[in-house]
TrEMBL record:
This is tRNA N6-adenosine threonylcarbamoyltransferase. One of its GO terms (biological process) is tRNA threonylcarbamoyladenosine modification. HAMAP family: TsaD. It holds the Pfam family TsaD. It is found in: Cytoplasm. Required for the formation of a threonylcarbamoyl group on adenosine at position 37 (t(6)A37) in tRNAs that read codons beginning with adenine. Is involved in the transfer of the threonylcarbamoyl moiety of threonylcarbamoyl-AMP (TC-AMP) to the N6 group of A37, together with TsaE and TsaB. TsaD likely plays a direct catalytic role in this reaction.
């Protein structure tokens, strides 16, 4: 049973956690939302500076909350890809320095594998194979989970991530940032059938549509056109109806793909991850589709859906179990497919 200290700085949350297998001993998260809010999105340079200012304090806080000393930590982990390069570098450099200083093994973690492992934090008995629907501000993927380190991405967005679509539509409706929670709140009082919006299907060269890939940029443009049309006749926009209709379209697109993939690949569990997992419309649709098709749908608590180091530590613990560790020469990568994940590790299984 390994005790792992992990650092996550891939985007706009500075997080340090200590996890003993799936047991979270501490999970410190400092959000930079206020810093980026004024710009309407994450500014990479601002993110790096904030991580730098916070990371030492976060490490100390995680150790203190877990009531552990360095001698009780078995390995040190950090997210090394994908993400903002400058932001990733802060966490990775801190983790590698600590590993060197305290003579501990170092484990680099793929951010998306972390999101997959978030489900284990509250469902430690979860056994692969299962399907993971990962929907965040930066990623939208339908992933078949075979075992630790073995994943097949069955579908992904061809353009905007689901969270990004929420943020962009919120901006064009003149709402704040991040847009997801605001649209979710407004949608409560709106009519999801008020406007018919395009789902964003991906055509295949031989005809038909890709069953698991999605696209949200056309939907965003459709909302923009609709808003301009509506504004021409009445400057008071039906914001709640627009929010509800947009949310319903995204939730339907995601649910349809996840359920189809689970059924096609004979996977009886769908685990959700990423910030958009908070969305009420998506939760409702997935829950009822799960009941209809006899699928188990796991929604980890929100603190583990949004970016956090506990999920990174949990993934690192699984790699530790199979003998994987990373060289101290490991660098960061802004993009990295899940299928390349084994390149992060030196140990042979
Ligand atoms: O996973 P996350 O915290 O960060 C990334 O790794 O991207 O996800 C943030 C995204 C944002 O785009 C935000 O608008 C969206 O998740 N989000 C939501 C909701 N809460 C957060 N989207 C829809 N409905 C929500 N309730
Ligand atoms: Zn994330």
């Amino acid at each position: 049973m390994a005790t792992i200290l992990a650092i996550e700085t891939s985007c706009d949350e500075t997080s340090v956690a200590i996890v003993k297998n799936c047991n979270v001993l501490s999970n410190f998260v400092a959000s930079q939302m206020a810093e980026h809010g004024q710009y309407g999105g994450v500014v990479p340079e601002v993110a790096s500076r904030c991580h730098l200012e916070t990371v030492n304090e976060a490490i100390a806080a995680a150790l203190e909350e877990a009531e552990l000393s360095w001698s009780e930590i078995d390995a040190i982990a950090a997210t090394c890809a994908p993400g903002l390069v400058g932001a990733l570098l802060v966490g990775l450099t801190a983790a590698k320095t600590l590993a060197l200083l305290h003579n501990k093994p170092f484990i680099g973690v793929h951010h998306l594998e972390g999101h997959i492992y978030a489900s284990y934090l509250t469902n430690p008995d979860l056994k692969p194979p299962f399907l993971c629907l990962l929907v965040s501000g930066g990623h939208t993927s339908v992933i078949q989970v075979h075992e630790c380190g073995q994943y097949t991405t069955l579908g992904r967005t061809r353009d905007d991530a689901a969270g990004e679509a929420f943020d962009k539509v919120a901006r064009l409706l003149g709402l704040g940032y991040p847009g997801g929670p605001i649209i979710d709140q407004l949608a409560k009082t709106g009519n999801p059938q008020a406007f018919s919006l395009p789902e964003g299907r991906i055509s295949l060269p031989k005809g038909g549509y890709h069953p698991y890939d999605c696209s949200f940029s056309g939907l965003k443009t459709a909302v923009m056109r609709l808003v301009n049309q509506l504004k021409a006749s009445d400057p008071n926009l039906p914001i709640a109806d627009l929010a509800a209709s947009f949310q319903e379209t995204v939730a339907k697109a995601l649910t349809k793909r996840a359920v189809k993939a689970a059924l096609d690949y004979n996977l009886s569990t769908i685990a959700i991850g990423g910030g958009v997992a908070a969305n009420r419309g998506l939760r409702q649709l997935l829950k009822s589709a799960g009941e209809e098709h006899n699928l188990e749908v796991l929604f980890p608590p929100m603190k583990y859906c949004t970016d956090n180091a506990a999920m990174i530590a949990c993934a690192a613990a699984a790699h530790w179990e199979v003998g994987d560790h990373s060289p101290l020469t490991l660098g960061v990568q802004s993009r990295m497919d899940l299928s390349k994940l084994q390149t992060l590790y030196t140990a042979t299984r």
